[in-house]
């Protein structure tokens, strides 16, 4: 099993006191290297403009890549562009593209991308919610356009709804988007009646829900929908901010809940997708919980069993 990362992903700095901070990357990569020495680490390449333009417009590309940045610029109250941001965003998106290529050519079975900034709030035209480019969407579009896949699933268990991913694909039946997320919570989307063209499944969860409730929702609603879609590739927006210690939300999940769900996703990838699964880091803002959940998640990806 492969993992992709790049040192540039630590150079995107949204500023003092920001939850989405560079230390998140080392928390994840240090914990993974210590826990799973057998992980096969690769350096993430940069995404190309052509790969980004499959899901983003050229105005957003110009903003992120071509703005001269001497000091941090606020794109919105949460989202910042600094001197290292363009390179970090390119490597984060490029990791997903390389991971898709690796599983499609058979060079790897499952891949985890330890990257930042996160991506799932970025729409086709707007960087928002800590996200500059929507890396998982770039990966999904690459799978469809470069590898000709007709059924790509994006599973998003970050505690926030991936409004950007949904927005990019909600008229594209080649991609199914399935999400559980706390509601109410930023970005105030992802209601159950948002169905796209039948390719979007949203499961809002109430604040305070614990792992039993979380597993029940996945068992009853999301996993059957995913299984019924028969994905040729499983992509995962792996945000660990539903952990009970996370400062940005109020779910009560434990690392074992993420391990359980990962096992279910591996089983579905094995059943329909020749095992092909690519997971990309999204949120997770308590460093200890983030490290623990990443180790649990990747442990199941390595073994194939929770
Ligand atoms: Zn999140």
Automatic annotation (TrEMBL):
Enumerate the InterPro entries for this protein.
Answer: HDACs, His_deacetylse_dom, His_deacetylse_dom_sf, Ureohydrolase_dom_sf
Q: Which intervals of the chain form a coiled coil? A: none
Which Gene3D superfamilies does the protein's record reference?
Histone deacetylase domain
Q: Where is the Histone deacetylase domain?
A: 18-300
Q: What family is this protein classified in?
A: Belongs to the histone deacetylase family.
- Name of the protein: Histone deacetylase family protein
Organism field? Novilysobacter selenitireducens
The lineage, from the top, is: Bacteria, Pseudomonadati, Pseudomonadota, Gammaproteobacteria, Lysobacterales
């Amino acid at each position: 099993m492969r993992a992709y990362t790049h040192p540039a992903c630590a150079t995107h700095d949204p500023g003092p006191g920001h939850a989405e901070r560079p230390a998140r990357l080392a928390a994840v990569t240090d914990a993974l290297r210590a826990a799973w020495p057998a992980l096969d680490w690769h350096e993430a390449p940069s995404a190309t403009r052509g790969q980004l333009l499959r899901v983003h417009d050229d105005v957003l590309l110009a903003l992120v890549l071509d703005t001269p940045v001497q000091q941090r610029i606020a794109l919105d109250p949460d989202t910042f562009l600094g001197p290292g941001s363009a390179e970090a965003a390119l490597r984060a998106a490029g990791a997903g593209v390389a991971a898709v290529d690796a599983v499609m050519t058979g060079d790897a079975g499952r891949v985890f991308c330890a990257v930042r900034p996160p991506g799932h709030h970025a729409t086709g035209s707007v960087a928002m919610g800590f996200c500059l480019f929507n890396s998982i969407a770039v990966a999904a579009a690459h799978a469809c356009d470069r590898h000709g896949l007709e059924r790509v699933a994006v599973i998003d268990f970050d505690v926030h709804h991936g409004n950007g991913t949904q927005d990019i694909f909600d008229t594209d039946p080649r991609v199914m988007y399935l999400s559980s997320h706390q509601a109410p919570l930023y970005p105030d989307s992802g209601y159950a009646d948002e169905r796209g063209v039948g390719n979007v499944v949203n499961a809002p969860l109430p604040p305070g829900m614990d792992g039993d409730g979380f597993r029940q929702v996945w068992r009853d609603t999301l996993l059957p929908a995913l299984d019924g879609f028969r994905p040729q590739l499983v992509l995962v927006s792996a945000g660990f901010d539903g952990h009970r210690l996370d400062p940005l939300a109020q779910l009560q999940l434990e690392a074992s809940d993420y391990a359980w769900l990962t096992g279910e996703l591996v089983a579905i990838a094995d059943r329909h997708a020749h095992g092909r699964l690519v997971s990309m880091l999204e949120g997770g803002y308590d460093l200890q919980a983030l490290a623990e959940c990443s180790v649990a998640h990747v442990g199941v990806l390595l073994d194939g069993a929770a």
